[in-house]
């Protein structure tokens, strides 16, 4: 169900946490992924993250199909079951795995899971305006830009918008 040609989505295991912790110590990754200050997080932080999985959250490791190496993660959270909506986030940890179609395949698997297994109707995400690669990916997947959180982020003395994107189940089905 969660297998593509190049990647598959699996559970995040405790022995993955040292790698995840390394990604979050990388300022380049942090500046693409999160609005919080780019500061390292410990394995203990991620162990707690892994153990606390409420019923409105699903986390997956993105693994290379052939080697089983973890290269990133996908998180579906903030699910409002009564409204069939959720937030989706993705992080590809090492830059060597970006811009190779792996994130796209992982997002396709995650969206299939959202719309067909969880029976969601709407999935949304945010992205910083300077993350052009991610914006291109989301738009190619069928996400629609729905708005901007104007000058939301302050990085290196410059203000950036955080863009809101969403996709509906009907739009996803049309793209398939």
Structure description:
There is one protein chain. By secondary structure, the chain is of the alpha+beta class. It is built from six helices and seven strands. It has a seven-stranded mixed sheet with strand order 1-2-3-4-5-7-6.
Reconstruct the topology from this structure.
Blueprint: E1 7-10, H1 17-23, H2 27-33, H3 43-51, E2 58-64, E3 70-80, E4 85-92, H4 102-117, E5 122-128, H5 132-141, E6 144-155, E7 158-168, H6 169-175
Parallel strand pairs: 4-5
Antiparallel strand pairs: 1-2, 2-3, 3-4, 5-7, 6-7
The strands making up the biggest β-sheet line up spatially as 1-2-3-4-5-7-6
DSSP strand tally:
7
Order of helices and strands: EHHHEEEHEHEEH
Structural class: alpha+beta
Let me know the largest β-sheet.
7 strands, mixed
Q: How many H/I helical runs?
A: 6
- Sequence stretches where pLDDT stays below 50 over 5 or more residues: none
Beta-strand percent range: 25-35%
Overall number of domains: 1
Question: In CATH terms, what is the fold-level topology?
Answer: Aminopeptidase
Q: Could you report the average pLDDT, rounded to the nearest whole number?
A: 92
Cα(first) to Cα(last) distance is 16 Å
CATH superfamily: Gcn5-related N-acetyltransferase (GNAT)
